[in-house]
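Tol-Pal system protein TolB: structure tokens wanted.
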Amino acid sequence: MMTMKKMSYVVLCAGLMLGASGAQAQLRVEITGIGSNQIPVAVASFVNESAAPQSLSGIIKADLARSGVFKLIDADAPVSETAPVSYEQWKSRGADALAAGTVQSMADGRLDVRYKLFDTIKGAQISSMNNAAAPQFNRLLAHKIADDIYEKLTGVKGAFATRIAYVTQSGREYRLEVADADGEGIQVALRSNEPIISPSWSPDGTKVAYVSFEKKKPIVYVQNLVTRQRTIVSNEKGSNSAPSWSPDGSRLAVALSRDGHTQVYTVNADGSGLRRVSTSSGIDTEPQFSADGQSIYFTSDRSGGPQIYRMSTSGGEAKRVTFGGSYNISPRISSDGKTLAYISRRDGNFQLYALDLASGQELRLSDTANDESPSFSPNGKYIMYATESGRRKSLAVVSVDGRVKQRLTTQAGNIKEPTWGPFMK
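Answer:
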């Protein structure tokens, strides 16, 4: 059970305190495809959930459906977490699990949300949660419950309560926006009349690094999403681009052209300690720290065309990683360090691929023709990326096995450059 102190911290970080930035057009989520071996689960309406601003059970069911992992069984009526459970009855309706709960209004205005999860096959309760929070954190509580259901029934940590960041372009205005993983709760972190590119979340989820052209050249900034304070991390001569965080949040890897051609550097998160890492005569760019922080993956044309390489964070020999196709860019590594996602150009199409680093097996994950900017969910089960359809840029999400696909669209401009935030601690 989550303590109130921990819940308050999560709420603070998830809310991000970006201030009143004006209502933004919400992202619309379309789901296609389902996972194999779906788990049948019934999510009953919570007793008295009309006391909450939105239906908690509705948010939970939308999360689970979006994952493609679950088959939702109709529960018909509200069920309290304290009500006796007829396991045989739920089994006969096809449910392997039942989620039930209650919402109570507290004297101080907060909502007390209680939930339990029951395994109908084993005939036992397998999880519970009891949290109290202000009504504006209603969605967060629902996402946390969905995360709990996902984890208890799959053994993998859920990522519904995480955040995403991306860039929206409407006319000449660029906005760095932050939203819930389901596209709701959009807040604007930065507005500019000049391009914003390459956002990257810090490991603790409180900051985003990005490149802004507001001073008529690319400069790398780090912005604290809670205080809104910005720090220039790299403003060297030439181009400053492609920031990515080390797993401990102490450093960033960046691509700089300060010495005439673009190479990989590392820099401390406060902008000090700049150090060159790569030393090729070609272009080395798009650096990404490995999951253990000991290596850097990057794109280089040193073999004649862009391919992905790996080298030690201290520099030295670089080893080529991608061999399928003649054009592979934008490396992203999963949190367990086992899977590499990237964009590959084949037959004239730029598409999302995943590479199992142990076996060398490659899998094409998208069927669109102009993909870019992949980003793993923190549990490593999904990849978000930008794509183009009918001259409109939108975001897409695909499971790492390619079975479940989602499209996130908006009526207000183009959305691109996605980055999926970390688990909140």
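The two ends are 14 Å apart (CA to CA). Residues 138-154 form the longest helix (17 residues).

Cheers.
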